[in-house]
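haha ok so turns out i had the wrong file open the whole time. this is the CORRECT one, sorry everyone. sequence first:
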Amino acid sequence: MKRYLSLLALFWLPIASGAVALVQTATPTGITGTTKTITFASAVATGDCVTAYVSGSTSTAPSSVADSNSDTLITTQAWVVGVSSNFFGVYSFHVGTGGSSFGITVNFAASSTFSIIAFETSGSGACVTDGISAVATGTSTSPATASLTPTVTGDLQVALLGPAAASISSWGTGLTQNAFYNTTSPHIASATGALGSTSPVTASATLSSSVTWYIMQFLFKSSGGSSCTHSGITSAGALATPNGTTGSYWGKTGAFVTPDCSTVNYWQPSVGNFGVN
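then structure:
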């Protein structure tokens, strides 16, 4: 009986919630060819999110983007034109099982010149966007996006800049550069910032000289808010993304429940614990 109660207590153990935070950035890399893996120097934690920012010289999107676990791909920004002959996309994965030598592999069907930045984020909802800006373009020393307004406190602001051929003198308010790749073209850079309120935010930078650029931003969502994001188990016994309908997730109550988007209530088979929805 004691053993049963111990197992039950373990099964009901929740994962702590919190704001989204940058954990680590893999060393940026580039290649002319068809495939490249970018690997994190430190072990990636189970339940975190890993994201690849890919920029290439072809209008054809990568034929595949996968992480070490073949986790479900979340396309934050589909392959689009940045400026001129520079194209890019943003790809994220909610890590089912972490570990060392964790990587993201990008494949193109035909040879392409492309660059990759990858980073790991932690915190409830770390693979969920809370807003994505349109891609802004121009030729100047002052790239900037339109503003986004977080729906909850604790989001992580992510800014992506390309081709970034000029050096970056500074980033806008609240942003700290986490990666800059300019060894070969396309040159790309990213910056992140923790948001402590729901005030509108804009991503901007100051360049050392006037160049043609593109810039965009998105927000990784903290816990809470009006949309549910982690995988649960349906009454049919299959994994599904939250859809807000009654009976769609296995809850701590011992029944299939409606996601409420605010508490640690839903079983995540890929994580092996209850998680923040």
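Residues 21-220 form one domain.
again sry for the mixup
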